Amino acid sequence: MQKLGLIAGGGGLPVEIAQHCERSGRPLFVIRLKGFAGTGLAPYAGAEVGLAEIGKCMKALKRAGCRSICLAGNVARPDFTSLVPDLRGLMLLPKVIASARKGDDALLRLLVGEFEKEGFAVEGAHDVMEDLSLPAGVLGRHAPGEDDLADARHALRVARAIGQLDIGQASVVAHGLVLAVEAQEGTDALLARVADLPAHLKGKPGAGLGVLAKAPKPIQETRVDLPTIGLATVQGVARAGLKGIAGEAGRLLVLDREATIALADELGVFILGVEPDPS
Question: Is 177 left (phi over 0), alpha (psi -120 to 50) or beta?
């Protein structure tokens, strides 16, 4: 197996990938992004690199013998004036700023392209761990009813629509009414907003109504930044009085799968994978 260079931001996804490589015997080298990568990655061989230290990152990966890379984890959009680039980062910075003005996906495509120019193969997290992806159908004990399915379909349409504009990846719909859409705040904050809505617009904990849907942006580079759900998502959905979660099969990552399903079963939350829109 080719040695994997894991460029790690925050959250649980990079740790899951590192643990998977350890279990499967795949050689691994971790680039821990300063200010983002968690302490769970400390035991793995690697290097700590700043966001704008592009040259340092690539040199470290090459010295370690990595031929493939995977970008995973949460990275908040930085204040570009505060970055401390190395020479390669300084040369790239004007393109980075120009791409960032076009949206997060343009920025990610630029970065992926730079690594490919250096000869690295770019793997998505779902390529490294095939069982990360949401399968088609119901995951867990609870299944949606007909009204829930209608809300799920509408919420996915809304999520794709805001994704087309590079706004976010998630929306919440209850009884056909759009309760919220995601922007830069992230899914946890989105669900917290929904929890504060008037009770007649949604359900309540233990008697859920409405669906959170997450979908990749239609313009998205799917090897990076696929939408994810996990324990915090299930907890947020339940606290917000929603009934379930929907996503596109094969295009949504389920973190800490067994524990996430168990918690959804306990809290009465359904998790549904639907076939991606062919259009």
Answer: beta
